[in-house]
Amino acid sequence: MPYGRCLGIAIIWGFVGITAAQEIRNPLPSQLEVSSDFSGGAAEFQRIDQKQRLIRLVPPRPEGRGWVVWWYFKATGIQPGETITVEVGNGPWSTPLQAACSTDNRHWTQTDAGEMRGEFMVYRHRVDGDTAWFAWGPPFTVEDAQQLVDEADNRLACAAAFELCKSREGRPTPALVIQQPGVDDDHRWGIWIQARQHAWESGSSWVCRGVVDWLTSDDPRAEAFRKSAKVYIVPVMDVDNVAVGAGGKEQKPHDHNRDWSDAPHFHAVAAAQEHIRRENAAGRFDMFVDLHNPAPNTKEPFFFLAPADMISAPRRANIDRFLAMCRLEMTGPLKFTGQTYESGPRYDDAWSRISKNWVTVNTRDHVVALTLETAWNTPYSTPEGYSAVGRQLAMAIERYFRESPRR
Question: How far apart are CA 37 and CA 39, in angstroms?
Fold first, then answer.
């Protein structure tokens, strides 16, 4: 065979060999597939671009279930190490500066800061796995709430998981009570802590987890406090909307935090009221804390208080003392600097049916009742950051009760 022809064949086979090797080293990406058919999942997918590795969505709009904010979905078919682009629309409440991402649906990190392009926030995130979950913020499902109270029950003999109630749609509402043998019940401090009256505010349940983790820890302060207190904790009040991935706030006929009346619509509110009334009537109720997340532009935790004209002098003195303890203990990274607001007639037409306002009216004169709003749109709005707020809140509560509020 002529030399030139042999050389040409060799060159051709050489290119074929290189091409084949490249295909082996750089296989074509598999098909991206997405779903939100799981507990807490929520997404209305508008576009999946296989070539650009892009997923576009908006939060769904379930009729009568409140604000359109929450989104949470699973993506498969990812080539480990590739960057996935997620585009989310629907405005500032549903488009945090950084979204949440996980490769196991348990451990959550933040994406890089998103970029607003037209009506969509664009998040680009390198995924070190073949599957990823993306969400508005770190999810905390009803199953997570059940696991939290069960773990505390198993960890400590003085912690007991119980079912606060069945929801209107028949779901159990997990709850926890902590009280260690020590002082006589008549001298035991009574505390009620709850989260997630608005289903989309997942960070509040992570704050609640931080409270539970500290109260059930071997910290000497926590151990001593358990002997002098009875603490009720509800990690998720609106279990129905959390389960289906709905916003909950301003749902029909109203949300949980506008339901605190003499005839509550929601079973969790009625059950909470029953516990609070019973402990208050026995003279064993001293504090109510409702955990929430605020508006997008808020960068630090703050408290909502009842209107000043509803707060007696003894109650005011106790609130001021508790806020001082919070400034001592809640030191960051999400730091409480002392900011408070009132939620009265100018705040909401249904202000009198807000939980802490109801508690203020329906409990003894010394009881502290307030709402903690923990910022969700910051680099520290993560499971670790939220849990730190909860631990520090619990330490502030312990410090407050070193001095009797029943004066």
Answer: 7
Q: What is the pTM of this model?
A: 0.93
What is the pLDDT at residue 64? 96
7-37: burial string, b at 16+ Cβ within 10 Å, e else: eeeeeeeeeeeeeeeeeeeeeeeeebebebe
Map residue 13 onto helix, strand or coil.
helix
- Tens of pLDDT, residue by residue over 128-156, are 999 999 999 999 999 999 999 999 999 99
Q: What pLDDT digit, counting tens, does each position of 327-366 carry?
A: 999 999 999 999 999 999 999 999 999 999 999 999 999 9
- Tokens 């009198």, residue? 352
CA angle 174, 197, 277 (to 5 degrees): 70
Q: What is the DSSP string of 287-335?
A: EEEEEE---TT--S-EEEE--GGG--HHHHHHHHHHHHHHHHH-BSSSB
Please name the amino acid found at residue 296.
P
* Domain limits, the chain: 33-135, 142-400
Yes or no: say if 355 and 371 are a contact pair by the CB < 8 Å rule. Answer: yes
- What does the DSSP assignment read for 223-291? HHHHTTEEEEEES-S-HHHHHHT---TT-SS--GGG--SSS-SSHHHHHHHHHHHHHHHTT---EEEEE
Tell me: the pLDDT tens digits for 363-390? Answer: 999 999 999 999 999 999 999 999 999 9
Q: Which run of H or E residues covers position 66? A: none
CATH entry, 33-135, from 2.60.40.3120, 2.130.10.10, 1.10.340.30, 1.20.1290.10: 2.60.40.3120
pLDDT digits (tens, 9 = 90+) for 10-53: 333 343 343 434 434 455 679 999 999 999 999 999 999 999 99
Which residue bears the tokens 């609106």?
Answer: 238
- Judge: domain 142-400, CATH 1.10.1040.10: no
